[in-house]
Design brief:
Length: 159
Amino acid sequence: MKRTLIYAAVCSLATTALISPDYANAKIDNNKVANIENNMQFTPAGWQLVKLAFQLHVPKKGKALSQLIIDAPSTVAVSNDIDVLDDKGQKIKINVSLNSRRIIIDFPEPVTSSTTKLLINLNKVYQSTLDSTSIFHLSVKVVGSDTEIPVGVTQFPTF
């Protein structure tokens, strides 16, 4: 009885090993269907969908902010899906406009020095996977002035 089970197991393994794995090949019907080999999936044109976030510190002794201007690099494609949160995690009401690579975030209620920092979430950003870093240039406008004041840059590495 033991011998019969061993022979059955050996025969099953041998039969399984001799069956060729044809499940991965396309069937050819009278040469009407092309054969598919070595198919791979790549990120379309080297782009990935990401969420980018950064903090902007608001000076204690300064005028209230009326706008935040973000100049995006050519290595990203931005959307108007943006959230801005204050230092308590509360969502701030904003109006967003896009002009080519420039994002203008308008604050209907100016951001005063009572808010120490802003968390800006750029949702649904397409970032190139071919470049190593995306650099965004930031500037602000204060209440009562149309002058853009550069405040720095923020960098995001590509994953």
